[in-house]
Design brief:
heterodimer, A: mainly beta, extended, B: alpha/beta
Chain lengths: 75, 251
């Protein structure tokens, strides 16, 4: 079926809220990055958010690298 | 994917565990970056690079599978660049389909008011609201194969069918037209002619301007890639340094 419409796709096919939860923006050692959860406590770097070209050359933070992260709440 | 899996199978029984780890990270690098090692620069870079990719996100957060340029990410970065004395120039790389008018114009205004030299390159595409962002820089380049779609502003989603809606759109469009004509050599008449021309785009009004044509219309300053852009940026930085040293001499 072809649907011709001026409506944005997300208005016609609402996105599940769980899709938003898998991706998050975090900061590691002062470097902002977008990560996607792959396993429990393990995240894959999707994209680095920086204007410094040097940051894209850091091997540990190149896209596709896995990083471990845990959340803890202290009162 | 099948190539990668065959690559792993072709190396049976790695001798040590350490080697296995090394190999998998090698495979990962090839998968993600297309090469095993990336060049390392020794010194701090004085030219920063801002990429405007995918869709320019406005007030509604787009689903995570969309590539987006977010207002809240880009604006603080521009503020930081303005404040950091080590950064001397900014390179803007555009490959965008457009997006929110307000967010796009905000980024364009921020770049236009930046006191440091800025150069933009349109690589791939700089469509609709990408046009003001491309022209906002001190000097703009377009790759020979890159395109820019110029079309009227429109609302998607729920539109109230009253004459005021049209007036609102018309005012919004004037802001885009004014910004582009102010920051590039294109005339208002020409820009509007491209914007409202029929028959160039299937099922739409507007024009798709390719590389050299964008330069001919005066929209973009030159055809070129990263080499020319960095060269121009260094030239602008050189000029800026000469001016500041002159000012210091006068004082």
């Amino acid at each position: 079926m072809i649907l011709y419409t001026s409506m944005p796709e997300e208005l016609i096919f609402p996105v599940q809220s769980s899709d938003y939860e898998s991706v998050s923006t975090i900061e590691v050692n002062g470097l902002q990055m977008v990560v996607r959860q792959t396993e429990q406590n393990q995240y894959e770097i999707v994209r680095i958010l920086s204007t410094d070209p040097q940051h894209y050359l850091i091997e540990n933070y190149s896209p596709g690298q896995k990083i471990c992260m845990t959340f803890s709440f202290s009162s | 994917m099948s190539k990668d899996s065959s690559y792993i199978q072709a190396n049976p029984e790695p001798k040590q565990e350490k080697q296995e780890g090394k190999e998998s990270s090698l495979v990962e690098k090839i998968q993600q970056l297309g090469s095993t090692n990336v060049p390392q620069l020794s010194h701090d870079s004085r030219i920063h690079c801002l990429t405007i990719i995918g869709q320019i996100e406005g007030h509604i957060q787009l689903p995570p599978q969309n590539k987006t340029t977010k207002y809240e990410h880009v604006i603080p970065q521009i503020v930081a660049i303005e404040q950091n004395p080590k950064i001397e120039g900014l390179l803007i790389v555009l490959n965008t389909v457009g997006g929110d008018v307000e967010a796009g114009l905000a980024i364009a205004e921020m770049l236009a008011s930046l006191s440091k030299p800025t150069v933009s390159i349109v690589l791939g595409g700089g469509h609709s609201i990408g046009v003001p962002i491309a022209v906002s820089c001190d000097y703009s380049f377009i790759a020979e194969t890159a395109t820019m779609t110029i079309h009227p502003v429109r609302l998607t989603g729920l539109v109230i069918g009253v004459p005021q809606t049209f007036e609102y759109l018309d005012k919004m469009q004037d802001r885009v037209v004014n910004f582009v004509t102010k920051h590039s050599k294109i005339t208002e008449e020409k820009f509007k002619e491209l914007m409202f021309s029929k028959g160039n785009l299937t099922r739409d009004i507007g024009t798709n301007v390719v590389g050299n044509d964008a330069v001919d219309y005066g929209l973009i300053d030159g055809v070129g890639g990263v080499g020319q852009a960095i060269m121009k940026l260094n030239e602008l930085i050189g000029n800026a340094n000469v001016e500041t040293s002159k000012e210091n001499m006068l004082q």
